[in-house]
Amino acid sequence: MRPGRLLELRVRRSTAIAAVLFGAIIAYCVLFPLVSPYDANGVDFTRSRQMPSLHHPLGTDTYGRDLLTRLAVGGRTTMLIALIALSAILAAGVIWGTTAAMAGGLVDSVMMRLVDGLLAIPRLPIAIVILVALRLNAQNVLTIALALAVVGWMQTARLVRGQVLSLTSRDYVRAARALGASRFEIARRHVIPNSTGIILVAILLELPTVVLGEAFIAVLGLGPDPPTATWGNIAQDGLYFARLWEPFLASTAIALFAISANVLIDSVDEMLDPRRRLPMRRERRVSSAAV
Amino acid sequence: MSLTAFIIRRLLWTVPVLLCVMLATFALLRGAGGSPFRPPPGYSGVPAPLQRELSDFYHLDDPWFVEFGMYVKNVATLNFGPSMVVRGEDVTDVIKRQFPITLQLVGLAALVSLPLGVGLGVLAARRANSWVDLAVTSASSLLLVVPVFFLSYVLSRYLVLEWHLFPLGWNTSRSKVLPTVTLALAPTGYIARLIRVAVVETLQEDYVRTAHAKGLLEYRIVWVHVLRNSLVPFLSSAVSMLALLVTGSFFVERSFRVPGASSAFLDAAFTRDYPLLMGLTVVLAVIVLLANLVADVLLAIVDPRVRDAMRS
Fold first, then answer.
1. How many helices (DSSP H) and strands (DSSP E) are in chain B?
2. A60: helix, coil or strand?
3. Mean pLDDT to the nearest integer, B282-290
4. ipTM of this model?
5. How many CB pairs under 8 A join A and B?
6. Which residues of A touch B106 (CB under 8 A)?
7. Whether A123 contacts chain B with CB within 8 A
8. Of B95, B94, B114, nearest to B106 (Cα)?
9. Cα(first)–Cα(last) distance of chain B, in Å?
10. pTM for the whole structure
11. Which long-range contacts link B168-172 to residues 24+ away (Cβ below 8 Å)?
12. Cα distance from A182 to chain B (closest Cα, Å)?
């Protein structure tokens, strides 16, 4: 067999492993709370800080809550936050990117310069400012998702704009325009069907960032109010009582989720367009997971 | 476009972006409503006469655009005004006191991670697809995905609090070791991965084969010819690198009790000290935008095509 084929096989295997891992984490978070005999928020100090055992495979936290259950429920909340944030990012990114691309000229220039500038500013401090401003009442899933969306829509807007621009300059789109197709028709027949792939990638790209961002925010004490479990809140609970176990579990969950998501994004990207296999894109993706 | 024109254009674009950031921060903090004098839990609050003084200084009783305009004018003259929570504390003093510490921390971490990351990346690329490559790539990926709060907690707890190998704080050079190393870990992994990909790619170029053919020494090819080409991806990811460092500084400063700007930022956030929070945000934005500007200008020097991208 040629070495190239072997390499191809390895890529597919890593994709398969990532897909299984990604699916398993989501299935665990969604399904396990349904079958678990424990309540994720049920405080029972008689079972406080137990070591892993048959009854509690991951032990219990300071409040005596089963960590296997709590990690699943926490993951579910984190994913809910991610889902809301990603939907908002999608909406903002598509609207901003398409408007800029369609408007062109000075409007486009101003809109994209602004995005570039905002992109340069680290997300965490701005998210903190947003949460502080919103913290008139209690912090909840929605406010955190909103804060994460406000600091995370710029990259998507940039990708969408680039895609729309490159599509509208293609010959077949120009031909359609020459044949008298309206702007709406061009958008419906050519731009939107050919953009779903890159938009999907753009959104998935933000997934690890949003999950990690939730954890950062929660660890700084700005997460959803207790006893709500999120991966970040579980880490914060442990850190508050100077315990290593909970942040270790939460960090592991986040890291596995982020890595599998990243590998999956690469595969989806390559599957959608093999010509776009630029290594630099992959590196940017890695960075987005960490920032 | 000439380089000067590029720099001027790029510089001019920084101003509206900065103003947008200021306006957004201002709108968020002041638009959220409520009196800015609500004392946070554990603080006695500001007495009425001082409240009046502060209201006058910040034009709190005027329309928002007057308030914002006066704030921008003050900031332009580097007068960030007094704190609204801590009596007698001036925001400018806090900035002067704590920003240099964070800059030093971030600078030192960058200084550590740069040679380390480049070295690891080149090492992995030279032996691409060997076990060395696998080890370096796995390690650098791990450094990137392990959340920084976990690392800084583990290191501060064991190396500082339990085994007393290093002191807390930022006074002695010994106390600076651990925060710097902790903050440098994630960027090291990032740079290593970046450089590895770039070098592997460049090693396959024709001119590298030519260099080999004309008998250049291996190390000269890698360190002079190949690495020079990694400058472009390296400089274009300066923003991500800076974000890694800034995000990390929040957790590192907290774990190791470093009295830097990130801790001041968190304190200001929790006490809702809005002039302090705004001042710190503005200075952070200025520093980040300037760093980004420098990276872009360097990029435009290295790769002139970037200048033309600016025109569109």
1. 15, 0
2. strand
3. 90
4. 0.86
5. 150
6. none
7. yes
8. B114
9. 12
10. 0.85
11. B168/B256, B168/B257, B169/B256, B169/B257, B169/B258, B169/B259, B170/B101, B170/B105, B170/B256, B170/B258, B170/B259, B170/B260
12. 25
